[in-house]
Amino acid sequence: MALTRRIARPLLSSGFITSGTQVLREPGAAAEELRPWLDKVGPAARARGIPVPQDPATAARALAGVQVAAAGALALGKAPRTSAALLAAALLPTALATTASGDPDASRRKVTEATRNASLVGGLLLAALDTEGRPGLAWRARRASRDARRQARHLAKETALEAKLAAKSIG
After folding, report:
1. How many CB atoms within 10 Å of residue 47?
2. pLDDT tens column, 40-84
3. How many CB atoms sit inside 10 A of residue 51's CB?
4. What's the alpha-carbon Rg for the chain, to the nearest Å?
5. Which of 45, 64, 102, 142 is deepest in the core (most CB within 10 A)?
6. Distances (CA, A) of 121 to 6, 84, 117
């Protein structure tokens, strides 16, 4: 692993670990921020079979648990792409709830938090797409397809040559 990844992953994870453990200990403020979003999205999600908790404190703790676990894995370099994608997905409800809150006095805070969340999602998406210099799945699929076509052409030529040799030996 490159030195920059060894430094960047724990740095990116540290904020999620800190805020996640705080929410796990005291979910009150996070639950109140999630409440309006859960009231809007929760019933529709549950109608589609998506298990969304009705209690905002439970939802806040669940998101915090996902964030702490995924951030820890990302910091340690364990399944970093999956961990980064999980962190981005877990950040979205919090980001949407923060921007949807109805407190007009906190408009500056909302803009700052929305910007911070957007930049974090961007960084997490970069981390989720980072193949560490190794080919990604799309490249591997194209390469396998190209190799299969090449091998099929080679086998066809070889079979035609063997058929000609067999015809000469019989005739």
Report:
1. 8
2. 888 888 899 988 888 999 999 999 999 999 999 999 999 998 999
3. 7
4. 26
5. 64
6. 19, 9, 6
In the block, tokens 């999600």 appear at: 45
Task: Please state, in angstroms and rounded to a whole number, the distance separating the CA atoms of residues 13 and 80.
Answer: 11
Does pLDDT of 89 surpass 70?
yes
Crossing angle, helix 107-129 and helix 80-100, to 10 degrees? 160
The count of other CB atoms within 10 Å of the CB of residue 105 is: 7
Alpha carbon 150 to its chain's center: 35
* CA 94 – CA 37 distance, rounded (Å): 9
Query: Greatest CA span in the chain, whole angstroms?
Result: 96
- Predicted TM-score (pTM) of this structure: 0.67
Per the CB < 8 A criterion, the answer to whether 110 and 88 are in contact is: no
Domain boundaries, the chain: 3-134, 136-171
Residues 73, 20: Cα–Cα separation, whole Å: 14
Structural tokens at position 160: 């035609």
Distance CA 70, CA 79 (A): 9
63 with 88: CB under 8 angstroms? no
Query: How many CB atoms within 10 Å of residue 127?
Result: 21
- Per DSSP, 171 falls in state -
